[in-house]
Amino acid sequence: xxxxKSPGIQEPVRLAEIKDQPITDTIEKNYMPYVMSVIxxxxxxxxxxxxxxxxxxxxxxxxxxxxxxxxxxxxxxxxATMHLNPHGNDAIYETLVRLTRGNDALLHPFIxxxxxxxxxxxxxxxxxxxxxxxxxxxxxxxxxFSGIDRNAVDMIxxxxxxxxxxxxxxxxxxxxxxxxxxxxxxxxASQICSFNLAEVCDGTIALLKNPKSSVEKLLDCIKxxxxxxxxxxxxxxxxxxxxxxxxxxxxxxxxxxxxxKQHSCIEIVQIPYTTSIEAILKAVGDLxxxxxxxxxxxxxxxxxxxxxxxxxxxxxGTDPDALMARLFRMTPLxxxxxxxxxxxxxxxxxxxxxxxxxxxxxxxxxxCLVRELxxxxxxxxxxxxLLRGLGRILLDIDRAIRIVRETEKEADVxxxxxxxxxxxxxxxxxxxxIKLRHLNREYILERIKEIESxxxxxxxxxxxxxDELKQKAMIASQLTExxxxxxxxxxxxxxxAGDLPEPEEETPVENYSVRIILTREGYFKxxxxxxxxxxxxxxxxxxxxxxxxxxxxxxxxxxxxxxxxQAYKAKLDDFDTTKASALGEYLPAHLNFDEGERPILLKxxxxxxxxxxxxxxxxxxxxxxxxxxxxxTKSNRRKLSGAYSDAxxxxxxxxxxxxxxxxxxxxxGRAVLISSTLIPLKTTRTAAGVTLVALKEGQKITGVVSGxxxxxxxxxxxxxxxxxxxxAMTLPSVESGKKQLSLT
Length: 744
Hints:
Helix content: 25-40%
């Protein structure tokens, strides 16, 4: 008896069944269909200027009646578009967002929008969910749907064969050059910049009138690309000629700015289309943080309802034009746009220059126009045919009525009218459907008056259909009307690249070793080691003492904490070197401290190591460690409020780069010796910390001794505790106050 096989076990594949197949056959059969689908059905725009996703979305909105009336929720449009484009709600909505007026991606948006749709110039400014936003078609869309109901383009089945959609949209202007497009297919890509609508209309009209127009003539009409974000285009005619001829090449865009002399700041009001506000802020922040740009004291995004604005605060005496010349060279405030004009023509990708694209568009538009005129001609001929039949019964209306009345069967009415007046079935059907009240001489005479005008109109249409020059004249007339109705001034300013001054080489920050000194009264000195070798006797005010002293380098950044829970930042290079015999620069005045504010810690930093921290100790016996990275800022901020908790007066702030011992002294002559590792690390700057010393009523922490100074405190070793909160131990004696890090 045969052994029954388990249903869950499959037989092993026999090696004899595996057949060799050349890799070229595999690619041809399996990969190439996918490649062609991506190229032809997704990524590359066609001559109407749209990708399939754009076309399906706009046509759905057209079918929904959104050319007129009120807006509808974007979610409704997204759902309806799924009938034509089943690629997911998110993909459809992202397509919709880019076509809206609110997103600012297009010179001539196709969708009138209400709500938050993000911005083309920001990668982080997110659009709202489709249930919150509202849309309708912009009146401008009348130009892309003109003739779609008059057989201007082919209608093809949708993906499940339940409805039809246009293969292309019959745009009455070269939208392929007016709307920017970026597509990445397999093995090829397309990047088409936008041009000014009025200039494109002028260039197309010139080409319609003279198909042999030169590139130079076209350059005079269509001067250069134009972008919705504005900015300046650095114009090089040779570069532009290459793009117009071949469809490949690049040009540079740069930001536009104004200088506010009153507030000593640069306001950047337009940026290149190819970059984002976040990329610019990061680049500027890195330059400021690294000390490569010292003229900027602060920078910020001031975009609001009034429009785009990025503000750079400058030091007094800064030349704004020289600074911007350096920023253009070092940041995305100047960027390149690479052109790659790949367009699908009759289903095949072709790279063409501007002239080639316009020639193909004219061919496409002529085809649409001929189909529209042929459709209208057919309609008018049909109407003329009906009216001629109506004219036949004018001579004997009573006979027509009698035929209808005396016919016994309804099915015989039309044949009897055909026989009685020698008309065909279509004419007889039309007459049979006329209401009885209209079977009078006045009505029939009024109707057949149209025969003469119809005949004239038919002759006119037939003449146009037989003369390509008249067809081109019609297209030129439409373009003139579109320019008059929708044309706008250029947004992108054309600047000759040869007229720009050469940017000056930046002056790097000179780097050398220095020693920095900060006294309790707030006097600061930056002294070279050579100067210290000559004399290291420091001049101080009476009663003042050195609080911080460390060796560093001139490119370091200073981080200063004060007794008002604030931190200040400054570039060490901004301070002049001095001698030990000088009193120094008064730091509160240099950094604009608040009245009565005093420094408690100064640290020079060339980087912000993540394992380093700042220890804060408070009168109430609490303490906390804050990671050094919490004080690292991307922008050149000079003042940080809320640098630490202000719940209790600060006793001391210490830089913690490695575990260290801390001796906490109380006003009761007691002390606790703990390791800094017992103090918890908190990521929030204003964290109040934990209790380190258990204090009785009326007691408080008055001082802290750290490092080698602890050995000078008699009995300090007996006060060591390994857990917190700790009970303070009595000290036999406390060394002089100069051994303590205290604010009292």
